[in-house]
Amino acid sequence: MDFGELAQTGATALVTAMATGAWEQLKDRVVRLFGRDDSDEEQAVALELEHALTTIRSAADPQAKLDVQAELRGQLRQRLRTDPAFAADFQVLVDEINRRLPQTDRPTVRQKGTADRGGTVIQAGRDVVQGPRPKR
């Protein structure tokens, strides 16, 4: 399991869910997972997530959402590396979040590469398919 990729995917899924109605159905589960059955930790997590939610929903600047996502990604990356049980449970949660989000709310990544003078561009997110160069 690539923890960096899971942290990115997870942070994106959580922030996207926070910006939609899906969050209300998911937040208690997220708090329990992050709190790991420690009531004090769960309260701290709930407050932190509530602050993130307020930032995402009230910010006029789209950069605020990206900032919350980046902060969450960093926290997740550290937690995923040090807690294998959390990593496995978090993967299940991310898969569930992505199933619940409407297709239009799911984040997408678009890449465009251009090469000239006989150069080659290879971009990969996960799978690489090699084929003939398109004619212009």
Care to describe what's here?
The chain is mostly helical and 136 residues long. It has helices at residues 3-18, 22-35, 39-58, 62-82, 84-100. The protein is built from 5 helices and no strands.
Concise account of the structure shown:
This protein has five helices and no strands. By secondary structure, it is mainly alpha-helical.
Largest sheet: none
Average predicted local confidence, pLDDT = 84
Oligomer: single chain
Quick one: overall form? elongated
Q: Strand portion, in percent? A: under 5%
Cα end-to-end separation: 39 Å
Report Rg.
18 Å
Number of helices: 5
Can you tell me the residue ranges where pLDDT is under 50 for at least 5 consecutive residues?
Answer: none
Q: Sketch the topology as an H/E string, one letter per element.
A: HHHHH
The number of distinct β-strands equals: 0
Which structural class fits the helix and strand makeup? mainly alpha
* Domain module tally: 1
- As a percent range, the share of helical residues equals 55-70%
